[in-house]
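[job 0412] stage=complex_fold ligand=adenosine monophosphate status=START
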Amino acid sequence: MKLFKKIVDIQTWAEKIHKKGEDIALVPTMGCFHKGHLSLMQKGKELCNHVVVSLFVNPTQFGKNEDFNSYPENIKKDIKLAKTIDVSAIFLADKKEIYPEKFQTYVELTHLPSYLCGRTRQGHFKGVTTIITKLFNIIKPDKAIFGSKDFQQVQIIRQMTYDLNYNIEIIECPTVREDDNLAMSSRNIYLTSEQRKSALSLSRALKKAKKMIVKEKNLNGDSIKNEIERYINSFPFTEIDYIALCDPETLRNVINIKKSVLFALAIKIGKTRLIDNIIINPAK
Ligand code: AMP
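[job 0412] stage=complex_fold status=DONE, emitting structure tokens
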């Protein structure tokens, strides 16, 4: 497994791979790997000759009061874990390599970032689309793999790939969960054992929303959200950022559920902000 820290080095390597007629799957990450990250790498192995994992805690996607400075890091362990999947390369650039002093170009979508996480995390998706654009330009992957835990992120990247005419296939992988259904996240390690119990409110709320829509045939978005709000608030340490029922493509709010909807949550458990989501088809 190769470890690249310089843009020019990974660029040269990726060009050589492509000249040989082999393809590359890119898995962008911020490190501190868990089984969710590894599932994306595994998918990349299935689909392409080579998997490149980028490991970069991207400063431009963190707000002023967010956890950039305390974001969990364990590079040695990450490298070991990536080796178990037999990825071809890790791209581990530092901040100056990615954002040199004279840097001044950002990539931003006009609509999709104004919903869900974008409402409270101002500028977050601008940071995401900028770093992903740079990674796409540097590595020129054939496929790029993302987790549906960050559903809005995948939709935004799909749209950006279409808008900017990248010839890159965006692959979405299902959310990997702990045995008790908590969605795996690098941020879960912030949780105390008491908070960890309250964190289960997210996955349980998804199950509850699905039951209301599919079994109880409650197709009124507002009434579902009200009930879920009461449910989440019944757990200690929880503070609701948003509870959303929306169109999976446009992310616009849905009041009368007629077809598949995205049910998405962002909940702060103490200081830790967690997200989760599910697509619910009212017919099954
Ligand atoms: P992160 O390092 O948190 O930025 O995540 C890197 C990639 O891993 C993103 O595409 C995430 O959607 C994906 N990811 C994070 N958590 C999970 C999970 N539990 N299951 C599957 N993919 C995940």
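The two ends are 44 Å apart (CA to CA).
[job 0412] exit 0
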